[in-house]
Amino acid sequence: MEKKLNSLSLLNNSDQLALMQLDWGAIIDQISKHIYFYRAQLELRKAVVPKDRETIEQTYTILERLSTLLREAKTDSLYSLFSSLDREESFHNSLSFLSKGATLELYDLHKIAKLIECYQSVNNEIGDILKNICIYLKQELDHKNILHLFSKFISEFRKLLSRDGEIQYEHHPELRGPYIELKRTEEDIRYALKEILRSSTFEKILQIDEYDIINDHYVIAIRSDSYKSIYGQIIAHSDSGLTLYIEPFSIRNKCNKRIALLAKIDEIIFTICHKHSEALRPHAALLESIQSVFEMLDLFLAKATIKIYLGRLLLALLRFYSKASFILCWPIL
């Protein structure tokens, strides 16, 4: 494809003829390979809509700036930042649910936090391009206002969930106590199970000499024909019915305590998520705008990559300003 585009850009025929000879379907497919976000893919493949001169010139300005960055290999960090964001339509759905009063789950809030952090980084690198894209989309994003609105959310949320998506149980003031107690309880259960597995009661009827966890219950596997009700509660059985997974009565209280602690931790996390959702709800539309700007930047980056190969042919749009020429070139502009 690159060879074909390069050869076309060196044609001696008129630019108009060269434009008409380009295989725009192939060019669309080539641009598509460089696009990250799902909605940017949809935007690329929209039906042809003739653009006015102002829009074409805005696009050309953005593409020229991005092409320069591409030639100077200064876009790797942008692609790295994009790869940390949610590319699918589901993220827009989450923002829609937020605006309608839903409490977002922990990892949906994590996606929002990454979006805001990404915006700050991208704005620091190519703030001028973001402004041009906002003009193109007829949107207004006030950088200082965005950082002010979301700085408290980011600082508080990152106490709960790291940038890598790890829950900071031991570092969060509300989770630390229950989490430490949970770890101690689990350690007690594991120690007790090791003793049970070595005991004369179970040693000869075990199917597997290790414990397992099924539906949040610590269990051991014994032969079904050796089961007695005094051994413990049946939690599950194998498909063949030859193996029973039981929770020994001697650890039942500890297991119930563990389940209660897990429920308490889940409740605390839900309360935190609800608080953050309430704080973010008035700004759901702004978050949607930031995501839309990134998706358009993604599309422009992909187009700029192909534009480099098209070379002087793209300039023909401005010289041959006619409906025919800019309809032909719509995948780039």
Would you write up a description of this structure?
- The protein has 333 residues and is α+β, with helices and mostly antiparallel strands.
- The chain has a domain at 176-266: MutS, DNA mismatch repair protein, Chain A, domain 3, CATH 1.10.1420.10.
- It is built from 15 helices and four strands.
- The protein has helices spanning 2-9, 15-21, 24-32, 38-44, 53-71, 76-82, 90-99, 106-137, 143-160, 176-198, 200-203, 252-280, 284-310, 316-319, 323-328; strands spanning 206-214, 217-223, 232-237, 243-248.
- Strands 1-2-4-3 form a four-stranded antiparallel β-sheet, covered by helices on one side.
- Helix 10 (176-198) runs antiparallel to helix 12.
- The protein starts with a helix and ends in a 5-residue tail after the last helix.
- Mean pLDDT is 85; it is low at 1-13 and 321-328.
